[in-house]
From TrEMBL:
One of its GO terms (molecular function) is acyltransferase activity. Keywords: Acetylation, Acyltransferase, ATP-binding, Ligase, Magnesium, Metal-binding, Nucleotide-binding, Transferase. This is Acetyl-coenzyme A synthetase. Residues 82-465 form the AMP-dependent synthetase/ligase domain. Belongs to the ATP-dependent AMP-binding enzyme family. InterPro entries: Ac_CoA_lig, ACAS_N, AMP-bd_C, AMP-bd_C_sf, AMP-binding_CS, AMP-dep_synth/lig_dom, ANL_N_sf. PANTHER family: ACETYL-COENZYME A SYNTHETASE (PTHR24095), ACETYL-COENZYME A SYNTHETASE 1 (PTHR24095:SF14). Residues 527-605 form the AMP-binding enzyme C-terminal domain. Catalyzes the conversion of acetate into acetyl-CoA (AcCoA), an essential intermediate at the junction of anabolic and catabolic pathways. AcsA undergoes a two-step reaction. In the first half reaction, AcsA combines acetate with ATP to form acetyl-adenylate (AcAMP) intermediate. In the second half reaction, it can then transfer the acetyl group from AcAMP to the sulfhydryl group of CoA, forming the product AcCoA.
Amino acid sequence: MSDSVFPVPAEVAARAHVDNTKYLEMYQRSVDDPDGFWGEHGKRVDWIKPYTKVKNTSYDYHNVSIKWFEDGTLNVSANCIDRHLATRGDQPAIIWEGDDPSESKIITYKELHQEVNRFANVLHGQGVKKGDRVTIYLPMIPEAAYAMLACARIGAVHSIVFGGFSPDSLAQRIEGCKSDCVITADEGLRGGRKVPLKANVDMAAEKAPVKSVVVVRRTGGDITMQDGRDVWYHEEAARVSDHCEPVEMNAEDPLFILYTSGSTGQPKGVLHTTGGYLVYASMTHEYVFDYHEGDIYWCTADVGWVTGHSYIVYGPLANGATTLMFEGVPTYPGPGRFWEVCDKHNVNIFYTAPTAIRALMGAGDEHVTNTSRKSLRLLGSVGEPINPEAWNWYYDVVGEKRCPIVDTWWQTETGGILITPLPGATDLKPGSATRPFFGVQPAVVDAEGKFLEGATEGNLVIKDSWPGQMRTVYGDHDRFVQTYFATYKGLYFTGDGCRRDEDGYYWITGRVDDVINVSGHRMGTAEVESALVAHPMVSEAAVVGYPHDIKGQGIYAYVTLMEGEEPTDELKKELVKHVRAEIGPIASPDLIQFSPGLPKTRSGKIMRRILRKIAEDSFDNLGDTSTLADPTVVDDLIDNRQNRA
Ligand code: PRX
């Protein structure tokens, strides 16, 4: 860990919304008087019927219930679009940069209004009503934002599935939230390669039938349309008007569901609601990125992840910002692409993930230094711990030592950023997410749930609710309670470990549960294991994470084959292919070790601690192995380990 400190530059503090004194004052008020604080800041969004109640939340294990602004009504799409029309109708709302550098497009707030109204009417035409779930499986094209906002306009609940997920994963998510309508594109385009989105939907729909599929034309590739179910978006859009009244929604009506992996079972549908989410997404966007009128803001995430929801679409648009949406990948056509796009569109605020930074760092400085980047003012990081080496490169080479870095810690469940520097207030330490945002009360506990004080290390919990918090697991409130509030009663458990230093700064050390963070994407080990054992030659599998230079963590799979099956390299390749087909490319095992046996206790429990150590290639100190049913399995695992230093 690095101990160097980067003080707030005077010019950054001067223009920032808050300096350190103001931060401390606002933070104190936000925890001493949450009703007063959020009652005031809730007004940053337009309410149809103003709220009279602010916070009504309980972390009591027997009665977990989270409500914010519960008697207020509003519409998210009206907040993200209509309310800006009078003052900034001609300002770009979205700058779209295509996969191919020759393709880009600007969509003003006025145009966004027309597009979203039309899209909303197309959805009405498909029979979608308030409260219905709509699955969105689109590439990074403006229609993804239109579709989200169109759902919000008519009160439908969107569930976006990342375009890299397989037909099976898509089917599971369609079924999970019982959606009758899927919005997709003929094909996606990433790094010059086509992604067969519509064909995947066709396969998914065999398992999870839907009533309607709305298809956006992106590449013009060959696809089949099923009569009576599939419609072309452009044909339907030509038939409908560009006026659709926004529906009045209660603050606690659902806005979206987003599936995310946990330590057990299948992915959970994280449910976010309307009022508190929007207040929190827009407020964090403004303060964390120190957003000012006229700034060009770019978050490189995909709308398939929560970062894309909160910080490409809802937060920035609620603030009337110009948000850049990028269809492609960081390394196409070359590793200078990010910085070329920054120059092309004069990006001021740039938000990306450590995995991208590490990959680009490896490609050589010249791809960065060839570009100007003079428009850049602030850099951000999200998704996984950023190692000080990558932080320093980002700071020195990309930001030329003039752009503060905000290392933002949060989760799908939190709706928005919880622990982060504020550029005008917080001295930076490379690798630390630093201090809590307003209203957020982090704490560190030991395995028994005892609060640890001062400089310490343990498990990260949050003591009280903030407006952007998820409200439930869709359709399974008990799972919500068990997952987040059962480990430490009365506290929200994040699943992350952390260290707190003598300055009260938080350093997230990574997941402490059976979740692997691969390139900033969450993957449950149980999901990968069940994909592996679904293969006819596999009898048993155990999956753990191991340190990976680019991805942060890689996926290491121990696989026991069925009696008589040959452990060949071909079979390894086949198993990787199999997992890609079952879940998607992001779940591909990086290393597979065929192991005749797995280390188990006498009661049959797999000892993952041992598997993790071997995968890390640090097996000198395996701890107590005396409880193993057959200690000799460990020797075989060590002898045949795949990750030798
Ligand atoms: O382990 C933490 C890590 O990503 C997890 C949340 O993943 P997801 O829900 O997919 O959301 C990612 C984007 C918000 C967390 O539990 N994580 C996220 N941001 C950071 C981080 N770890 C360290 N530092 C961060 N800045």
